[in-house]
User: Which sequence fits this backbone?
């Protein structure tokens, strides 16, 4: 990455293809939070950051997810293999990152408390260190993670539903942690109880 000649160029991949199996019948990405679908809040946070382009990977109920993001300046990527697991969506996103991007933020579609400022802090750390940037809070790691282009080839080889966590261990020396000072990096929604908690006025 040519940090001395130009600013870091970072894309943002929003993973919005999952089936929400632990949520029962409701697609959590379409759940209303403060008058907006959850996935729209996430996409708007990405758009409020310096990251570009914003790539949204869809799969389960793709048309409804696209409708929820109507009017937003995002690029949709269809993942027909979404049922295989998280890795298939991750690979769909990584494979579409433009060649002029130095890295990519991988943002889960069910993390509605993440803000554009959070993403920009991770991008700033990436510009300074050019490694894998991981947000932390109180000593624990969360999401989203910013991956450098140097790791894209390995990410495209991932399989199953484990995401890229094993790559963090494999390249531990490259990991740069950034304490964002917020529980937002842990606030993904996997159960009806978690959704109910987020719907409390103090959360949204």
Assistant:
């Amino acid at each position: 990455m040519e940090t001395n000649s130009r600013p870091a160029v970072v894309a943002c991949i929003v993973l919005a293809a999952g089936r929400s199996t632990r949520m029962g019948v409701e697609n959590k990405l379409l759940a209303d939070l403060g008058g907006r679908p959850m996935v729209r809040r996430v996409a708007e946070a990405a758009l409020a950051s310096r990251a570009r382009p914003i790539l949204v990977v869809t799969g389960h109920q793709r048309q409804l997810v696209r409708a929820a993001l109507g009017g937003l300046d995002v690029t949709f990527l269809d993942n027909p293999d979404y049922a295989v697991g998280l890795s298939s969506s991750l690979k769909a996103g990584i494979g579409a990152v433009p060649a002029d991007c130095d890295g990519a933020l991988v943002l889960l579609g069910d993390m509605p408390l993440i803000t554009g400022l959070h993403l920009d802090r991770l991008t700033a750390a990436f510009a300074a260190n050019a490694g894998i940037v991981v947000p932390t809070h109180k000593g624990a790691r969360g999401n989203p993670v910013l991956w450098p282009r140097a790791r894209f080839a390995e990410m495209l080889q991932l399989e199953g539903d484990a995401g890229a966590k094993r790559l963090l261990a494999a390249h531990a020396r490259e990991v740069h942690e950034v304490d964002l000072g917020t529980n937002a990096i842990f606030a993904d929604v996997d159960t009806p109880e978690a959704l109910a908690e987020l719907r409390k006025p103090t959360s949204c």
Observations:
- The longest helix spans residues 116-129.
- The chain has a mean pLDDT of 90.
- The two ends are 37 Å apart (CA to CA).
